[in-house]
Specification:
The protein is an all-alpha fold. The protein has four helices and no strands.
Length: 116
């Protein structure tokens, strides 16, 4: 690529690339903050923590379990709204009817994004 671009054009292309990387990092950091804020607002943190077990499993453990599964976000979104039992032990997750479908989807996307 450098052979095609020279001088100022090369520096401008490199600067644009670095700016894009910075913007992508800022967007993903913003998404992480938004996900955590939504989890706090919907009282998810009453039973879950991001990286440690509480009453329910850690969000990072959930992300790891469902990593690579094509329907993970859909499954988690449904489990948030309708509840679940038997996947993480004896304590069931009650249905979270106060969480609308859009917020459940956003929470599921955020949880999946926490995979290592």
């Amino acid at each position: 690529m450098r052979a095609v671009l020279s001088g100022r054009r090369w520096r401008a292309a490199c600067a644009s690339f670095v700016l894009c990387l910075f913007c992508v990092g800022a967007v993903s950091a913003q998404g992480a903050q938004d996900g955590l804020a939504l989890a706090k607002a919907k009282t998810c943190l009453g039973c879950h923590q991001v990286d440690a077990k509480r009453v329910g499993p850690a969000f990072t453990a959930i992300a790891q379990r469902y990593a690579g599964q094509a329907d993970a976000e859909q499954y988690l979104s449904k489990a948030i709204r309708q509840g679940a039992r038997g996947r993480w032990g004896a304590v069931p997750m009650p249905a979270q009817s106060q969480v609308n479908e859009q917020d459940a989807q956003r929470l599921a996307q955020w949880i999946i994004s926490l995979r290592p």
